[in-house]
């Protein structure tokens, strides 16, 4: 089984970018952001109601695109990078399932209102609740390093419809040769971010599935352990009373 993703006509230089805090930026990045809570064993009633309200806003007729204003970014080592991806038309994405991978390694999964981080991306991967309401499913990745350069695969599932896109994150060669990439905290690096026409093989998609499954299983194991501890504590209290 193969996934074929669409490619944009080409790169477009930018004067405004939502990708980095230094220099000119998109007006939306100046608004306060609200990062999604990482997956926990408890869900409040308000979370359930919120997802119920948003579920009616999600349409099965959507595509994944990269904004033309997010084609380049000046990033400092150790800062946050945003790998761009938007739904078009601009619809609320709170009720959809979102999966991000770097190559075949699961970066994070957004599911039932929570972010499940991949095993190699603990405390690094997140999405933005405020932006999700506007169809912005971009990946926020903190503590950026040169090893984060590569191909990112985003998959969005809504009902029976699944859309995917591959985003290339590359060092701009005429600015900084790859062999001389900065590695020290605070050093700056010029990146290009663009949609690429990449065919993922059946073996690669199988590895993605396994990586995502392992991330979810780890969360489920933690939940089960937490529930066992609560039961043991309650039983202990009953025995002492």
From TrEMBL:
Top-level taxon in the UniProt lineage: Eukaryota
- UniProt keyword annotations, A-Z: Immunoglobulin domain, Membrane
An example Gene Ontology biological process: T cell receptor signaling pathway
Q: Say yes or no: keyword Membrane present.
A: yes
Q: Where is the Ig-like domain?
A: 67-166
Segment Disordered: which positions? Answer: 7-54
Q: Where is the composition biased (Basic and acidic residues)?
A: 24-34, 42-51
Report the protein name in the record: Selection and upkeep of intraepithelial T-cells protein 1-like
Q: Where in the cell is it found?
A: Membrane
Name any GO cellular component annotation: external side of plasma membrane
What is the gene name? LOC109060611
The record's listing under InterPro entries reads:
Ig-like_dom, Ig_sub, Ig_V-set, IgSF_BTN/MOG
Q: Does the keyword Membrane apply?
A: yes
Extract the PANTHER family matched here. BUTYROPHILIN, BUTYROPHILIN-LIKE PROTEIN 9
Q: What is a GO molecular function of this protein? A: signaling receptor binding
A single Pfam family it belongs to is V-set
Q: What organism is listed for this UniProt entry?
A: Cyprinus carpio
């Amino acid at each position: 089984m193969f996934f074929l993703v669409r490619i944009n006509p080409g790169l477009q230089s930018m004067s405004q970018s939502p990708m980095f805090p230094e220099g000119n930026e998109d007006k939306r990045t100046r608004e306060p952001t609200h990062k999604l809570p990482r997956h926990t064993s408890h869900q409040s009633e308000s979370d359930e109601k919120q997802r119920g309200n948003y579920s009616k806003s999600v349409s099965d007729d959507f595509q994944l695109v990269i904004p033309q204003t997010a084609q380049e970014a000046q990033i400092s080592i150790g800062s946050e990078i945003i790998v761009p991806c938007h739904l078009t038309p601009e619809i609320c994405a709170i009720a959809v399932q979102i999966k991000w991978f770097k190559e075949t390694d699961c970066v994070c999964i957004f599911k039932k209102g929570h972010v499940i981080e991949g095993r190699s991306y603990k405390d690094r991967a997140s999405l933005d609740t405020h932006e999700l309401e506007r169809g912005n499913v971009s990946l926020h990745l903190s503590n950026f390093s040169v090893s984060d350069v590569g191909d990112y695969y985003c998959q969005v599932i809504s009902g029976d419809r699944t859309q995917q896109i591959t985003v290339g994150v590359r060092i701009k060669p005429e600015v900084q040769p790859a062999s001389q990439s900065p590695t020290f905290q605070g050093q700056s690096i010029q990146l290009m971010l663009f949609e690429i026409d990449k065919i993922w093989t059946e073996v690669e998609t199988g590895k993605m599935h396994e990586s995502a499954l392992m991330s979810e299983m780890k969360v489920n194991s933690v939940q089960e352990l937490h529930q066992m501890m609560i039961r043991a504590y309650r039983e202990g209290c009953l025995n002492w009373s």
